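Entry 14. Structure prediction run on the chain below.
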Amino acid sequence: VCHHSLATIFLFEIGFPMAQVNLKLSFLEFSVGKFTYFELNRPFPVEAALHQISSNVTFLIFQIHSQYQNTTVSFTKTLLPNASETGNDGGLVFTLRPEQTVCTWYLGTEDTKPVKNVAIPLPYSEGDPIPGGCNLEFDLDIDPNIYLDYNFFETTIKFAPANLGYARDEEPPSCDVGTGQDFRWRLQYDVYQYFLPENDLTEAALLWHLQRMAQVPQVKASAVKVITLTGNEKTTVSFSSLPGQGVIYNVIVWDPALNTSAAYIPVHTYACSFESAEGNCASLGRLSTKVFSTLFALLGLFICFFGHRFWKTELFFIGFIFLGFFFYILITRLTSLKYDVRLVLTAVAGSAGGVLLVAAWWRFGTLLLCMLCVGLVLGFFIASGAFFTPLGNLKVFHDDGVFWVTFSCIALLIPVVFMGCLRILNILTCGVVGSYSVVLAVDSYMYTSLSYITLNVLRRALNTDFRRAYLSVPFQTNDFIILTVWGMLAVSGITLQIRRERGQPPFPPHPYKLWKQERERRVTNILDPSYHTPPLRERLYGRLTQIKELFRKGQPAGERTPLLL
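Output returned:
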């Protein structure tokens, strides 16, 4: 380890070839195709160089990465908008002149804290396409960077179109002269996605995994290809945001005529901020969400094992979900209330929905109406699960009309299919939906991809732009464990209720009819002690009279009239 006032270099073996860095004053030296770890401090800049560049190398891409602090890489010592790039994932393209064997550039940061980085210069030959070679949107003349923007709903990446490769002593091909196969329009862009380990926000993990997304062979071996864009399509892709989950994106441009490829500079996000007080990556779960989801999970766990036996409690649970879901969508789209206020109002509205469904059953005894609500909740869950699979990424479902019609048909199909066996439908809903509430509760304390089975549908209902997002989530060790627990709870709850209800009436009798029969029996049966009980109105009036007597002043004893003289 060497120390200097401007840069501190850290070198260690991590399974990839590392560059040997000579530190002389504020000077860094890199090696082609080798990763280097180092730390940057203010002031700016630090000069960097690459020597002994091979003659068959036509252009170089230098890239530098940090976790969340910005660094700057520049062609010149004086920063110019069209000659520098600033961010936590940035880089430059160096097009080489004939006989050129040395490249120099400048690195630095304006952050007050030291910034740990990993960087690498990658060589490409004349047959390889040039990432960002036909840039018309961003500041750099040739821009190999991927620009990322995120919000709660979606993460969007943009990049400049590439150009065909050319030799050192040639002029670059024109970008917009022709549209045939001899021009850049023949190029194709493969967009790759790579997930970091769940619940791991460490800097070391990110910098290590970024090395798997820098070079073409490693990207293809490690990441998942999400989509392929042609040269005529817009170079913008959206993904569903996963707050707290690290994701790395990269694009490989492929020339089908020469079968050559080149990689853009990878970009990463956690869909949250490491520095802001609200929505910080280290403390994503709000207290209100934890309280709400924990109470909901306790009720769901009870419903999972005892829902069919305690029929009115289950109806309250179903009514809560039914009205609460639509009410939350309504107030979120129509108002700008804070999240905690919306959550409290949703809890109140959901409770009102549960009470209304219980009251409807008690007064009217409409079993079919109640079971329709139960079946629709299960149908909603099954439809959400269907679109959680790769089926949801089909382009046809990026259209809202097609999506919601298909979704509604699947949701309505479930109560229709189980119309002849309502008790089985009810028990299945209790077991599956009740146990899933535990998954949602776990998600408020630690990340799990299974929560997005339903959250993706909620996001689509809340945000119109979410329809264009590709829905992909990691499925790692935590998710396998939670999936196993969820499955065990659901199977146990369903089995227990089926065995317990064997030989019992399918559903309880109409409560209002029972109440009327009981009241008539008491009126006509004079031997029933309740027959001699006064009506409720008289009993309440008697109680009020007794309470008034407690506060009435006592009257003096004896003569109350004045004596006559």
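Residues 1-25 have pLDDT under 50 and may be disordered.
Filed with the rest of this week's runs.
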